[in-house]
Amino acid sequence: MDLYFIVTQLISGFTMATLLFLIASGLTLIFGVGNIFNFAHGSFYMIGAYFGYQLVSVWKVNFWIALVAAGTGAGLVGAAAEFLFLRRIYGRAQEGGFQILLTYGLILIFDDLVKLIWGTEYKSISKPSGFTGALQLGDIFIPTYNFAIIVIGLVVVVAAWWILAKTRPGRIARASAVDREMLGSLGVNVPLVLTVVFGLATALGGMAGALAAPLRSVTPGAGIEVIIDSLIVVVLGGMSNFWGAWLGAVLLGEVNAFAVAYLPAWSTLFSYLVMVVTLIFRPEGLFAPTRLRKV
């Protein structure tokens, strides 16, 4: 096992981890601020990938403009879903069960919608111009686009954390996780806050889908594939813990990268193995839940 192989797998794992973190951070944000279990979160990843395909491969829009537009489009769809559907069940005694049933129903609806609009064939997006080669560091070559994913993903997520932790809108969002009634009595439009947070979180998922599209096929059902790993990331990091999700994503990404290299036939089992071991020794996750009070 040489250095080139190790670095290649580390980069591959970190690329996967960055995409997972973009998705899982949105999932964590929704749960931490709104106490909403959005089982359909992976569908917004799929929607972002299809928006990216439509913009880049069909309408020939610049990839980087399309990336922002795809994330924005997924966020608008997410905000609309929260406003039209999820808002109707807040405060009900069986809210948790309703959330799971409703968001699972959204998965089926979104899957059928993309089949209706784009068909069932696999779609693809070319890598952006200038990012098809590799960076050379001595004898090691790092795919340029993978490096771009890592940088862009980290910048976006750090910006989201900064907004939550350091700005007035972020403080309002965190306050809504603590006491919605008190926040509402202070004149804050709490339902609007939840809609905006839901839109921001789903925009992160949509951006992840558009970023991943040049590396993976764009296909119906892609949301199911990523939501399982994203949920594992959230469990590993501790429910509602923003940076715990980052550590969980890195751990899962690297484990999967080396598992695929050494034991490809069994690689899918390692995600669950990591989760089981974590839950045995730290059932609360790698970090204690914070509900975003200390993001």
How far apart, in Å, are the first and last alpha carbons? 39 Å
Q: How many distinct domains?
A: 1
In the sheet with the most strands, the strands line up as 1-2
What percent of the residues sit in helical stretches (DSSP H or I)?
over 70%
Number of helices: 11
Q: What is the residue-averaged pLDDT?
A: 88
Q: What would you call the structural class?
A: mainly alpha
* Gyration radius, in Å: 19 Å
Helices and strands, in order, run as: HHHHEEHHHHHHH
The shape, in one word, is: globular
| Unreliable sequence segments | 290-295
Number of DSSP strands?
2
The largest pleated sheet is described as: 2 strands, antiparallel
What percentage of amino acids are in beta strands?
under 5%
Describe the fold and architecture:
With 295 residues, the chain is mostly helical. It has helices at 3-34, 41-58, 63-84, 95-118, 144-166, 168-178, 180-185, 190-212, 222-237, 242-262, 267-281, and strands spanning 134-137, 140-143. The chain has a two-stranded antiparallel ribbon. A hairpin with a 2-residue loop joins β1 and β2 (140-143). The protein is globular and about 60 Å long. The protein starts with a helix and ends in a 14-residue tail after the last helix. Residues 290-295 have low confidence and may be disordered.
Concise structural overview:
The protein is mainly α and 295 residues long. It has helices at 3-34, 41-58, 63-84, 95-118, 144-166, 168-178, 180-185, 190-212, 222-237, 242-262, 267-281; strands at residues 134-137, 140-143.
